[in-house]
Amino acid sequence: MEQINEFLTYKEVQDYLKISESTLFRAIDDSANPLRVTYITEGSPRIKLTDLTEWINKQNEIFKKLLRCVSCGSIVKLEDFKDRLSKKEWTISQFCQSCITKTFDKGKDE
Ligand SMILES: [Zn+2]
């Protein structure tokens, strides 16, 4: 099972939040609630998962609603996804991991 990196690329954050690059940059530059960027090496900006979670928690309810599973209504956390394919599925169907498993992996492990 692939583990979620504690440090996320801009692309991973964009896919999870379903936002454009310019929206992400606005979030990073937001004076009221800036999304913190960590440079693991020079020229390699990453968003720490804990910083992202903290940033989301400070967002309003309208924003948080976008992070709910359309099937069961639970809050979708990036760290809940078991692999890259599931993360991609979230960007398409807006299903959480357990709903993805229920819908697409039926009987696969039996
Ligand atoms: Zn769900």
Give the topology, please.
Blueprint (H helix, E strand, L loop, with lengths): L6 E2 L1 H8 L3 H9 L8 E4 L2 E5 H9 L3 H5 L18 H10 L3 H8 L6
Antiparallel strand pairs: 1-3, 2-3
The structure holds zinc ion.
The site of zinc ion has 8 residues, from helix 6.
Describe the structure using short key phrases.
3 strands; binds zinc ion; 6 helices; 45% helix; 10% strand; mainly alpha; single chain; three-stranded antiparallel beta sheet; 110 residues
Outline of the structure:
With 110 residues, this protein is mainly alpha-helical. It has 6 helices and 3 strands.
What does this structure look like?
- It is globular, with a radius of gyration of 15 Å.
- By secondary structure, it is mainly alpha-helical.
- A hairpin with a 2-residue loop joins strand 2 (38-41) and strand 3 (44-48).
- The mean pLDDT is 90.
- The chain contains 6 helices and 3 strands.
- It has a 3-stranded antiparallel beta sheet.
- The chain binds zinc ion.
- Zinc ion is lined by residues 69, 71-72, 74, 95-96, 98-99.
- Zinc ion binds next to helix 6.
Q: Sketch the topology as an H/E string, one letter per element.
A: EHHEEHHHH
Spans of at least 5 consecutive residues whose pLDDT stays below 50 are none
Query: If strands are numbered along the chain, what order do they take across the biggest sheet?
Result: 1-3-2
Ligand catalogue = zinc ion
Helix content: 40-55%
Q: Count the helices. How many? A: 6
**Quick one: overall form?**
globular
Helix/strand-derived class? mainly alpha
